[in-house]
Design goal:
Peptidase_M16_C; single chain; metal ion binding; 5-stranded mixed β-sheet
């Protein structure tokens, strides 16, 4: 990634911008260091509910006006919630950038949480929850978090529970924001053809009157992992399985080597080891992949597949066999070179998305104070040795370290 610029306002809000001259679309958003792990036990689902409520009314706009503001000029307004982040973002033609900036500021800082809208949105979220529960390949991945991070906020479902969502009132949102919103822990990020000076000028116009808010929130670190094997019967036609364990945190030097190892094992390429061994060779699955998520204090490896109930044991055995190979057989020089080239190519293609680039800029500056260039990341990838990957496999992928969650047809 070529040059980007950062400007810090007196209230602590950081503005990060990358100018891309060949685009007519302006992508921008607020990324906040607030997520579902910051909820109190009785607040499960509140961060995600706030994400919904931000669109339901501000001090000067009703829901209809918020939704129409960018749609009428062909733009898009959206949001998402994760375990550690909430983001409100938009995409518009460059000439409407100021309009989107003002609207994003309004919904981020001036939501009023109307009681009538809370009641309506409660029903929407309960329907979202029901739809998600009807999709076992999605539900099992989230429930696996609860298996690995048992008793810790990272194990809680981002959507919350039916009981918690049914009880939230206006004061709950105000209390959550009062406890968690901090101007030095949020970033306004943008990628467009606009010069940095123009973005800073607009930031000063719309963000200077936001008061400085500094909260010293301490996140509870995750400790005390105990591997588990859990099987749940459900009214489904296919068996679903997730296998995994905690992994390296965001700032760990082993993060990029492990990311490469995960990519080799079950990344998006059709030539991943799991896809070749389980789908292509034996035809046991339609989808099999592995994912590596990083958090500020830990990480999570999760391998997912769905198969016939009678093939569950065999498929699980094949996955374990591939993990054993990574622990016991060092990659040859050609295999290592190929794995590096594949990962670097995937990362370069991902950066072609200006929307994804905008999100990455915001999250990286928020978490690390900077965003690494592709060349910096490539240098780290190129320095990885085969014995590094084997050492990491033996550290993380030990069979006795793995948890398993099965959904089986009842």
């Amino acid at each position: 990634m070529p040059d980007y610029h950062i400007h810090t306002l007196p209230n602590g809000i950081r503005v990060v911008h990358k100018q891309v001259l060949h685009t007519k679309i302006a992508h921008s958003g607020f990324v906040m260091d607030i997520g579902s792990r910051d909820e109190l036990p009785q607040e499960q689902g509140l961060a995600h509910f706030w994400e919904h409520m931000a669109f339901k009314g501000t001090q000067k706009r009703k829901s209809f006006h918020i939704l129409n503001r960018l749609e009428t000029v062909g733009g898009e307004l959206n949001a998402y919630t994760t375990k550690e982040k909430i983001c409100f973002y938009s995409s518009v033609l460059d000439k409407h950038f100021e309009k989107s900036f003002e609207l994003l500021t309004d919904i981020t800082f001036r939501s009023v949480f109307p009681e009538k809208e809370i009641e309506k949105e409660r029903g929407v979220i309960l329907e979202e929850m029901a739809m998600y529960l009807d999709t076992p390949e999605e539900a099992i991945v989230d429930e696996f978090d609860a298996v690995v991070f048992d008793g810790h906020p990272l194990g809680n479902n981002i959507l919350g529970t039916k009981e918690s969502v049914s009880g939230f009132q206006k004061q709950d949102f105000l209390d959550f924001l009062d406890r968690n919103l901090s101007t030095d822990a949020l970033v306004f990020c943008s990628v467009s053809n606009l010069p940095f000076e123009k973005v800073v000028k607009l930031a000063e116009k719309y963000l200077s009157d936001i008061p400085s808010i500094k909260k010293h929130r301490e996140r509870v670190p995750f400790t005390g992992y105990t591997p588990k094997a859990v099987t749940i019967e459900k009214p489904i036609s296919q068996a679903h399985c997730v296998i995994g364990c905690p992994a390296y945190a965001l700032a760990d030097d082993r993060r990029i080597p492990f990311f490469m190892l995960n990519n080799l094992l079950g990344g998006p390429g059709m030539n991943s080891r799991l896809n070749l061994a389980v789908r292509e060779k034996h035809g046991l699955v339609y989808t099999i992949d592995s994912n590596y998520a990083t958090y500020i204090d830990t990480g999570l490896l999760s391998i997912y597949f769905g198969t016939e109930k009678k093939q569950l044991k065999r498929t699980t055995s094949l996955v374990m066999k591939e993990l054993k190979k990574l622990r016991e057989k060092q990659l040859g020089s050609l295999q290592l070179h190929t794995a590096k080239e594949q990962l670097m190519g995937q990362l370069a293609m991902a950066e072609e998305s200006n929307m994804g680039l905008m999100m990455m800029l915001g999250k990286s500056v928020l978490d690390q104070g900077k965003a690494e260039s592709l060349n910096e990341i490539f240098d780290k990838i190129k320095s990885i040795e085969a014995h590094d990957l084997m050492d990491i496999a033996n550290d993380v992928l030990r069979e006795e370290n793995l948890s398993i969650l099965n959904y089986v047809p009842s």
